[in-house]
């Protein structure tokens, strides 16, 4: 069974990695799908985000995880991948409200598409990519939010 875990992953955090590792134990195939979104202005290029996630996946020997990109509607990507399950991580109620509505729209566009939710590990439920970028922009310590590799790349981006 294949699952798609879509996102921007700018940058990938310990929370993202935790979800990827857990999905790899639950599904035969995990596709980490990086969104190419013209409405967002990521600090990392698509290639940099792919490289960071690939490094994390390789470091944890997750053989059933692949990394792909998509542009446009995620449901179209799911159809192309012949996947019927999307996974999303939930940090709290605000995430749930947003994700529930998105899942309903996705299911309306692609009958039979299911969305499964994984609750964030409590150790990571306070972490978001936006928060990591903000802390890093002020030269704060992000070592408890991202891997050493991602931390180094964040420091390079913010020139410290």
Automatic annotation (TrEMBL):
The gene is coaD. Its EC number is 2.7.7.3. Reversibly transfers an adenylyl group from ATP to 4'-phosphopantetheine, yielding dephospho-CoA (dPCoA) and pyrophosphate. InterPro entries: Cyt_trans-like, PPAT, Rossmann-like_a/b/a_fold. Belongs to the bacterial CoaD family. Keywords: ATP-binding, Coenzyme A biosynthesis, Cytoplasm, Magnesium, Nucleotide-binding, Nucleotidyltransferase, Transferase. Its cofactor is Mg(2+). SUPFAM superfamilies: Nucleotidylyl transferase (SSF52374). ATP binds at residues 8-9, 16, 89-91, 99, 124-130. This is Phosphopantetheine adenylyltransferase. Substrate binds at residues 8, 40, 74, 88. It comes from Anaerococcus martiniensis. Coiled coil: none annotated.
